[in-house]
Amino acid sequence: MNNTFENIHKILIVMIAHMGDVVLATPVTRSLKNKFPSATIDLLVCPLAEDAAKHNPYIDHVIVSELDNWQENKQELPSLIHLLQNKTYDLALSLNSDSIGPMLIGLSGARYRIGYDSDSQAEFFTHTITAPKKIMHESVKQLELLKPLGLIHQDSHIEFNVSASEMASLDQKLALAKTKPIVVLCPFSSHVHKNWLPDRWVTLIKRLSKKAQCILIGSEQELPDMQAINSKANDVAHIAAGKLTLGESAALIKIAKLFITVDTGPMHIAQAFETPVIALMGPTHSRVWGPRNRHDIVIRSLKCPCAPCWQVYKCYYNLECLSHSCMTKITAEEVIKAAESRL
After folding, report:
1. For position 289, what pLDDT does the model report?
2. Which of 149, 179, 210 is the last residue of a domain?
3. Long-range contacts of 313-316 (CB under 8 A, 24+ apart)
4. C-alpha–C-alpha distance, residues 306 and 297, integer Å
């Protein structure tokens, strides 16, 4: 196998995944830019991850394609493959372990192609690695793909660019008071099994609002549920859901005194900043997906032996949990105690 990578001027990374996964790919892009400083790096993502990709300081071009469910969008494939082949990439990497990433890498025509060595994928690559079996953080696992390039033990810290204009527009939209510390709360994930109970959020907000300015963030679709929580908390919080761009939400987390969240994309964005994070985690493994900065706290129930089931069974899309006990057994008091320790 030829392990000499020469004349690398154009690099393609394929990452068809959620926004949080794309944020966790920052270390890979940084390592590649440091290794090949004159090369341009393109990142191929699905629409939901476009904004996150554009806040990566090491990406030169973002390619967006509706391929998170590619079997229903096959009509996009010919034009996308034609685009990739015309780019004449020198190096291409698939951060996906499913079928679409390796297939696109193989069809891109890049001179060097790196990915995992599973039976159904190895044929698409010129260089492969075996997917690590031991438990490691996802951002560290992604860096394993760089070993054929001689890049070993790379820095895995997360970066997320927040512009001065995003900081200014945040201030205009929310007109934040400066009298109390800001606590940002993100109550909902796109996967219901990751969510905590609404009444626990109510209790938490009531207590924290006595000493902090509580701000709820999330999508516009989550707005009614947040309004219901805030109403039961006597409307003491400010709801920013649906009002902020991703960059403005990141700016808010950056200036906050504390960020309390379930396992979702903004939790990974918060890793780019010094803001302490309290992460409520159940079905997902904290050592794989959790926050890692020195002031962060992960809260999970120790009374639920089946968790983290998504990591153990690796079938969370089909898993029907009837009890949701890994999240419901997290009490409001233990979250309040953790929050007060950080405030």
Report:
1. 94
2. 149
3. 316/191, 316/193, 316/283
4. 21
What would the pLDDT profile of 98-113 be if each residue is shown by its tens digit? 778 899 999 999 999 9
Task: Let me know if residue 2 belongs to a domain.
Answer: no
- 30 found inside a domain: yes
Determine the pLDDT at residue 68.
64
Q: Is residue 260 part of a domain?
A: yes
Count CA within 13 A, CB hemisphere, residue 45: 23
Residue 318, pLDDT above cutoff 50: no
Q: Based on the structure, what is the number of domains in the chain?
A: 2
User: 232-239 long-range CB contacts below 8 Å, 24 or more apart?
Assistant: 232/198, 232/199, 232/202, 233/201, 233/202, 233/205, 233/206, 233/209, 234/206, 236/205, 236/206, 236/209, 237/185, 237/205, 237/209, 238/174, 238/213, 238/214, 239/215
- Two structure tokens written together for 100: 């679409």
